[in-house]
Amino acid sequence: MRRFIRSEASRRFPAGVVPGLVAVGLLIVWAVHEGGFFPDTWYWGALATLALLTVTVLSLGLRLGTIPPTVRAALVFLGLYVMWSYLSITWAQYPGAALEGSNRTLLYWLVFALFAVVPWTVEAALAAMAAFVLAVGTVAVVIMIRLATGDHIVGLFIFGRLATPTGYYNASAALFTMSAVVAVALAARRELPVPLRAVLLAIACAGLQLALIGQSRGWLFTLPLVALAAVAVLSDRLRLVVAATAPIVATLVAVHRLLDVYRVSANGKLVGRAFRDAAMRAGRTSLVLCAAVLLVGALMALADGRLPPLTLSGARRRALGLAVAAVVVVGGSVGATVATHGRPFHFVAREWDGFSHVPTGPAPSSNFTQVGSGRYDFWRVALDAVLAHPIGGLGQDNFADYYMRRRRTAEQPEWTHSLEMRLLAHTGFVGFALFAIFLASALVAALAARRRARALGRAVVGAALLPLAVWTIHGSVDWFWEFPALSGPALGFLGMATRLGWPALGALGTATGAEGPGLGALGTATGTGGPGPSEAARSEAVARAPRTRVARIALAAGGVLAVGAAALALGIPYLAVRETAQASAISASDPAAALRDLARAARLNPLSVDPALDGGVLALRIGRYGEAEQRFRQAITREPGGWEAWLGDGLAASALGNRSRARHDFLVSRSINGLQRVTSQALARLRTRSPLPPAEALRELAQQL
After folding, report:
1. Cα gap 438→426, rounded to integer Å
2. 4, 216, 251, 595: least surrounded by Cβ within 10 Å?
3. Which of 298, 66, 292, 265 is nearest to 169 (CA)?
């Protein structure tokens, strides 16, 4: 009996899934550490993922022939996109940014590949997604408790909008939405224990309410599309709608209190009794409603467990699914009509006008009431970049300098705020096509796995695709690519979905016939119970064996080289990032040592501008103007289009008495960024008796951040 229990547990949770579960833990770490946005977080995560992938492939004895063709195509085309990204360093104006962006792209390939090769079972995949949702839900509950108790709540917000835990309100809204939709999809399954289903519904309620406090306009307008995608990829749609009812109703009940948090801070005032009281009311209301959803969810799950399962024929099930989808569409249309006072087309026209013009005037009482932003101008310049560089784009992560010279806003975006525009502007039509083929191949593999699976398996595959739906739909109007806490679950769980469609693997991860003829044929010569192979077949197998061995040796050597190259590409820049972070930590107490650390960082990564730029600023601050000049000159060499380096070099030259050079540098800086007041002040005071001191310029620049 014990042996049977152990074998059954091993079948459901094979040891090979351990690297995948560790990777899920990494996704959670990114989620709570500023979304994994900063390089000193995601670089070590990329190295850890590379190690996990290597261990997984070696331990499974994975062969290329065992991978289904669609999954193999997805791996190949995403890999080709990574290679194209690295190649873009050669034509990028700022190679340092292209290198960092390419390394981030490599990280996403590693995440997808790891989740795609881990031998997930349905039960293990379900446990992995539940762990991710429970972790994000725990973060949500902690935030609610802090709001309810008024515990240092100012640090949770930016401009009155909830930014924790990613540091960017739109990204946090997307993270909580990912958690909410997956939680609802899992809670709808009667196979799960009653307490877990109730907790999942409470987590969905918490995620929706915190997303609402973030007041992300992109979240609001793309949420109906995400809901439609969920209805499309999930089975048992009626159960899904019933499960979603409780968290949705609870969120609607609390909507006014949730929106009050932004209303009382519409002018950016996050201190004072009104803001604190509004945040505490929102937090307490949310906690009460989530507790109510927990109770209602438990009762619903208990009732569901006692009722006999609804058995319908295939045709009736499809008809019911279509009816539910129609109800969702009609309900959304009616809701949109009511919300726009019966004038939806007028509303769309007004919102488009607001979207295409940067908002002016006082802040509104709700961020949802206007859609004006700089995105229209970002996309205008991004489209111009595509037309100017259609094949390879500007180079990975090279949008910032290009936009600076062509902008019609005061904003300084580093990215295009759209997944599609990002792919086109950064890597051209070639990069866009490579990524599109990858995504199509992976989706074909995942949907094929969904078709072949049984009821629970179909639900798990469908739930695994929901983070991708949020990432692509909401990410079409935002910059989510840069957040591993969002891109990781989207691409990782997509890889998991494709893996559930693989044929069953043996102990070494090889499918039937994976060895092919050759050595495998020799191994069947005896003990088969039938006649042995003919002499001609044996001779042919012996002849093929050396060629097969050479091919395997070549493949192994290529794999070793690829792992080594990836480790170097990620490891050396990570060391530079660590040196830069160390310098930042000690710059106030030991500036000389910080300058030495920054010099080492600049040598480790000769493409990055950050160590040189940071070193120049630090040297200016402590009055070492000659060294500042050298550092800024190094930064200009690495990023000629960066206005900060030209301004810093001009300030250093001015302090050293070289006014002609200072004037030249200030003029170049102003030609790049004509809206920077400090540059204009420095230029205006250059010919006076009191040129702008570097310390005063640095103080004013710091106030603008």
Report:
1. 17
2. 4
3. 265
188-194 long-range Cβ contacts below 8 angstroms, 24+ apart: 188/234, 188/236, 188/239, 188/240, 188/242, 188/243, 188/459, 189/239, 189/456, 189/459, 190/239, 190/301, 190/304, 190/305, 190/309, 191/456, 192/126, 194/298, 194/301, 194/302, 194/305
List every span in the chain annotated with CATH 1.25.40.10.
Answer: 571-704
| E strand or H helix at 161 | strand 161-162
Tokens of 336: 């949109």
Specify the residue for token string 């030609």. Answer: 671
Q: Is 571-704 assigned to CATH 2.40.37.10?
A: no
Gap between the Cα atoms of 486 and 494, Å rounded: 12
Cβ burial of 100 (10 Å; 0-12, 13-18, 19+) is buried
Give the angle subtended at the CA of 609 by the CAs of 603 and 613, to the nearest 5°. 100
Which positions of the chain have pLDDT values less than 70? 1-11, 266-271, 307-365, 369-372, 504-548, 551, 705
If you search the block for the tokens 């949008």, which residue do you land on?
399
Q: Model pTM?
A: 0.88
pLDDT digits (tens, 9 = 90+) for 362-411: 556 677 766 567 889 999 999 999 999 999 999 999 999 999 999 999 89
Q: Which of 70, 73, 92 is nearest to 81 (CA)?
A: 73
Percent of the chain with pLDDT over 70: 82
Residues 483 and 36: beta-carbon distance below 8 Å:
yes
In angstroms, how far apart are the furthest CA atoms of the chain?
Answer: 103
Can you give the pLDDT at residue 447?
95
- Neighbour tally for 700: CB within 10 Å: 13
Reading the block at residue 304, the tokens are: 């569901």
Residue 512 tokens read as 């039937």
Tell me how far apart the alpha carbons of residues 110 and 558 are, in angstroms, rounded to a whole number: 17
Q: Give the C-alpha separation, 38 to 705, whole Å.
A: 17
- Angle, helices 237-253 vs 273-306, to 10°: value is 150
CA atoms within 13 A on the CB side of 211: 31
